[in-house]
Amino acid sequence: MLAAACLFAVGIRLWFPVCGGMEGSAVTMSCHWAGEALKAVSILFSAFGVIHLLTPDGKMKAGIDLALAGLAVLTMLLPGNVIHICAGAEMACRAKTLPSALAFGAVLLLLALADLFWYLTRGAAAKHRRNG
């Protein structure tokens, strides 16, 4: 999960950034703010990934997985829903940023839910062995 989070953090800055500003204009396009929000979310993903890696307690990891799942849903909703992006299909935010945010959000959501399921079933199995 940490690798995917770091890849997203680097990618949103280098490979699939939002549109540049309009040349010679003082107006900031709304997709700029979607990109800034995605950059902040990518930093949170990476920070949670490091904390998850360093935490030995399974219950704590399950809690972090819940937070990561919510953050993944936010990642998928930010560009285009929470913050509007350009309407033109050829614009970078519509052609690169939106699909990559949806893809990384979906992958990170699946990873968080799979990890959560693993910790919950492992914990339930251990509790069953102690009581059985």
Q: What value does the Rg take, in angstroms? A: 18 Å
- Poorly predicted tracts of residues: none
Global morphology: elongated
Portion in strands:
under 5%
Kindly name the structural category: mainly alpha
Mean pLDDT: 80
Termini separation comes to 34 Å
Biggest sheet architecture: none
Number of strand elements: 0
Give short descriptive properties of this protein.
132 residues, 4 helices, mainly alpha
Write the topology of this structure.
Layout: H1 2-14, H2 30-54, H3 58-77, H4 92-131
Helix pairs in contact: 1-2, 1-4, 2-3, 3-4
Structure description:
It is a single chain. The protein has one domain (2-7, 30-131). The chain has four helices and no strands. The protein has helices at residues 2-14, 30-54, 58-77, 92-131. The longest helix has 40 residues, at 92-131.
Short description:
The chain is mainly α.
